[in-house]
Design a protein that fits this description.
Blueprint (H helix, E strand, L loop, with lengths): L11 E3 L5 E4 L2 E4 L5 E4 L3 E4 L20
Antiparallel strand pairs: 1-2, 2-5, 3-4
């Protein structure tokens, strides 16, 4: 991602016992180097790793929260 003075910062919202909410679009680099992307205006990233759609949140955290 470019870093220039004209770039607007992306907002990340941290929720206790929930996903990270990011203003999109986003690209996420996984541990194995794979890059996944979403062009949605808001993206929920899983932090509990229970999601079947990891790294995207599918609300699996609600079952055990």
């Amino acid at each position: 991602m470019p870093n220039s003075p004209s770039d607007t910062p992306r907002r990340v919202t941290v929720q206790r016992k929930g996903p990270l909410l990011l203003e999109g679009p986003v690209e996420v680099e996984l541990e194995d180097g794979t890059v996944v992307s979403s062009d949605r205006f808001r993206v929920a990233l899983c932090t509990c790793r229970r999601s079947r759609r990891y790294p995207w949140c599918d609300t699996s955290h609600r079952d055990r929260a």
